[in-house]
Design a protein that fits this description.
This protein folds into six domains: 2-147, Beta-Lactamase (2-Layer Sandwich); 155-289, 2-Layer Sandwich (Beta-Lactamase); 307-414, Beta-Lactamase; 430-543, Beta-Lactamase (2-Layer Sandwich), CATH 3.30.450.20; 550-627, Helix Hairpins (Orthogonal Bundle), CATH 1.10.287; 636-785, Heat Shock Protein 90 (2-Layer Sandwich). The protein is an alpha+beta fold. The protein is 40% helix and 26% strand. The chain contains 21 helices and 27 strands.
């Protein structure tokens, strides 16, 4: 007779036992006396049971096994058959593993999906327990299972609904909440539930902060707190929904607007309000838009009513909808008629003027841009000039809603144009007197009017612009046409300052069409007439290339001297720190060796230390030798170096430990593909920067190295960028390129690479800069003078 014993003290917890065994088999002695009683108990449970011996032969099972559709089984169940023979082979490994664990005394329970391909989704909760005889010896096992498909499907639907709700709240920036009402100390709100999105609206991540009553009130804008209470009391008394927009103060101190909509829950027995459930939406952007719209409408109305321009707004049938004060005055002055809303604007005109207005209005409705100038002589005989323009008003669908007719007085502008013409004539008259001087000087002169158009120029100016930009000087052409696009804005700014009365002086350089760099000294002087009005600008240009070459050579010499002083300081540092330390160790070791009482083992230890110090000394001397060699090889023959070939040579020479399938090198030398330089230096610079990017990579990420070229006005630029571990430049500072400076203790190195790169770049007359942040890689920018 078999027996299912309760678990031993050292067995797994009771959750792995059969619930039915715990509840119904406490007196298992009755089962060993009556197999019929055993079957009766099994047949009255809510789960299917199968009792197996140690060879997995079926001893007994309850009725529910035959009634349940179990996709694991492929044949009918009967006592004496082997369980594995009626189970799909796909489940054999998993079932055998579980059975063997149970026969060792383990209790197992788990949920699993047992869906056969092409069949419906089925879930079961299975439990397995060992069966022991009266002596506690395991003689078999019992397997129970319960179909839980409905529960699992319901759980999935609930989880999906929750995900959709959270996504909807996040996308719409809407959170949900629940608050309780407290009446002991007056009316107070106590938060009970705050959704994830509600937390984010207040500036916190979910779970980061506990939303207590005090915390809730601290977020509410102080002036809005009593209003919130008032609105809630109104909703309670009227038993209506609570709706209110108010301000909050986020965690970062930023003021925001939120819209709350809530429904009050009343106690069904007392009728008192106990809580409110609602939603919260961040409406800050909407509020800002509304405020800007109000301001915009206010400004538009102010402009419309206070502008000097006459505006008349009319619909598609030319009926007046609105007009500005100047429009009303203009109609009275010129037509002796009072402008009124609702009238047809065409009725205010007669004869040819009426016919011309009808034509222009219809042209505007047909999509043409209508504008023209008109004149009017007032009662005092003074002529006034006007610019008449028409605009169509459209809705977002581009449907024409009406027309705006504007009339702007341009009398002052027309008078200025007449005066300009007179000034141009005066300038032309003085040109003959100036030309003799202009054409017999070493300075280029260009005379401009007050609109910055060329009036006159000498032969040297024409020759200079033809050489530099390839455009001959022409009278009445805008002077800005002779400046490159990248310099137009700056030139215009300086000319305007000269027209304002300033005397402008500056130096600049241009690369001519022949490729030669030329330096110029510019002077812009305002031309003032007899009544102290500025008529134009005199631009004088002096070629100062020879002087600038001398200055540049002087600056280069000073730069070279400064660099040599830095090198001397570096050498002094190495000698005083690195060499002196090693020499001191050697001298100290020598003193110890002079002791005749040293034992043999002690001598070996001391000699080993002496050898270590000597090798360190040799390493420092070798490093110094490399640095000195860099300075000496600068006179090596320069040659054309093709950047793409250089990278290809370096990749082929990299050790496999560095360059593998996790490394990607992307190059773009389309702007500048080559340069004349010392090839060995450039090879060393490229090699060190590329290999460093591989060596100091970010753990667990593929290496991406980008090498590109660019060109500025004065330099050829090389950019090396990677996605490695990066450096904290706030801590490292200028030490990034220092000798023997290392910043990654976990990676082998001497601290020579970046020092040699900087030394070689500067020896070639270039500069190098570093941009980096921890975890964001490094970006080296090298500039060589063109």
């Amino acid at each position: 007779m078999i027996k299912v014993l309760p678990k031993q003290n050292d067995a797994p917890k009771s959750e792995f036992m059969l619930n039915e065994i715990d509840d119904k088999f406490l007196s298992f002695e009755t089962l060993k006396r009556s197999d019929a009683a055993f079957r009766a108990v099994f047949n009255n449970t809510n789960s299917s049971y199968i009792l197996l011996d140690k060879e997995f032969n079926i001893i007994s099972y309850n009725d529910l096994v035959t009634e349940t559709v179990d996709p694991v089984l492929i044949d009918n169940l009967y006592e004496g058959s082997n369980y594995l023979s009626i189970v799909h082979k796909v489940w054999h490994p998993r079932i055998l593993n579980a059975f063997e664990r149970v026969l060792k005394g383990e209790y197992i329970s788990h949920e699993s999906e047992c869906t056969i391909p092409g069949g419906p989704e089925l879930w079961f909760y299975a439990r397995m327990a060992p069966v022991r005889d009266e002596n506690g010896i395991i003689i078999g096992l019992v397997v129970t299972s319960e179909e839980i498909t409905a529960k699992k499907v319901a759980q999935k639907k609930l989880q999906q609904s929750e995900r959709h709700l959270l996504a909807s709240q996040r996308i719409g920036n809407i959170g949900s909440w629940e608050v309780n009402f407290e009446w002991e100390n007056g009316f107070e709100i106590n938060p009970e539930f705050w959704s994830d999105q509600s937390c984010r609206i207040f500036g916190y991540e979910p779970g980061e902060y506990e939303f207590t009553k005090e915390v809730f009130y601290s977020f509410i804008y102080p002036e809005d707190r009593p209003v919130i209470h008032s609105k809630m009391r109104e909703a309670i008394s009227s038993k209506s929904k609570y709706k209110f927009e108010h301000r909050i103060i986020r965690r970062d101190g930023k003021e925001c607007f939120v819209k709350n909509v809530g429904e009050i829950i009343f106690d069904p027995f007392t009728g008192l309000p106990v809580k409110m459930i609602g939603t919260m939406q961040d409406i800050t952007n909407r509020k800002k838009f509304e405020e800007e719209l109000i301001k915009s409408e206010s400004k538009l109305r102010t402009v419309f009513d206070n502008t000097d321009t006459a505006f008349v707004l009319m619909d598609n049938n030319f009926r007046v909808l609105h007009f500005s004060n100047p429009a009303k005055q203009s109609f009275w002055d010129q037509l002796q008629k009072t402008l009124r809303a609702g009238d047809n604007v065409i009725d205010y005109f007669d004869g040819d003027r009426k016919e011309r207005l009808i034509v222009n209005l219809n042209r505007q409705l047909n999509g043409e841009k209508v504008r023209y100038e008109t004149t009017f002589v007032d009662a005092e005989g003074i002529t006034h000039w006007y610019l008449d323009k028409f605009f169509t008003v459209k809705d977002p669908e581009e449907n024409v809603l009406g027309i705006v007719m504007s009339k702007t007085e341009i009398t002052e502008r027309k008078l200025l144009e007449i005066e300009k013409e007179n000034i141009s004539n005066q300038l032309a008259n003085s040109e003959a007197n100036l030309r003799t001087i202009f054409d017999h000087t070493s300075i280029s002169y260009v005379l401009l009017d007050n609109k910055l158009n060329v009036v006159s120029f000498n032969a040297l100016a024409n020759q200079g612009f033809v050489t530099d930009v390839g455009i001959p000087m022409m009278a009445e052409r805008a002077i800005l046409d002779y400046f490159p696009n990248e310099r137009k804005s700056e030139a215009k700014y300086l000319f305007i300052k000269a027209l304002a009365g300033e005397h402008i002086k500056y130096e600049t350089s241009y690369t001519g069409l022949d490729g030669n760099l030329t330096w110029y000294y510019f002077q812009l002087s305002p031309i003032i007439n007899s009544d102290t009005r500025i008529q134009g600008v005199l631009m004088s240009i002096t070629n100062i290339t020879d002087r600038k070459i001398i200055e540049i050579e002087r600056d280069n010499l000073l730069e070279d001297i400064t660099m040599r002083n830095k090198d001397l300081e570096q050498f002094a540092y190495i000698v005083s720190h690195n060499l002196r330390g090693s020499v001191a160790n050697i001298l100290g070791t020598g003193t110890i060796l002079e002791d005749d009482d040293l034992e043999e083992e002690e001598k070996k230890f001391v000699l080993k230390g002496l050898n270590t110090s000597a090798r360190k000394l040799e390493g420092v001397i070798n490093d110094l030798s490399k640095i000195v060699q860099v300075k000496q090889l600068v006179n090596e023959q320069k040659q054309k170096v093709v950047f793409a070939e250089l990278v290809s040579d370096i990749v082929s020479s990299l050790p496999s430990a560095l360059y593998n399938e996790d490394v990607k090198i992307v190059t773009d030398f389309s702007v500048v593909g080559e340069m004349q330089s010392v090839k060995s230096y450039l090879y060393s610079i490229f090699y060190n920067l590329i290999s460093n990017s591989m060596k100091y990579k970010k753990p667990g990420e593929p290496v991406l190295i980008e090498v590109t070229s660019a060109k500025t006005n004065t330099t050829l630029r090389l950019i090396f960028k990677d996605n490695g571990s990066g450096l904290d430049l706030e801590k490292v500072g200028d030490r990034a390129f220092g000798l023997y400076k290392r910043f990654h203790a976990d990676i082998e190195g001497k601290g020579m690479g970046l020092f040699m790169v900087k030394t070689q770049v500067e020896t070639l007359g270039g500069t190098i800069k570093l941009k980096s942040e921890p975890g964001k890689g490094c970006e080296f920018t090298i500039d060589f003078k063109l």
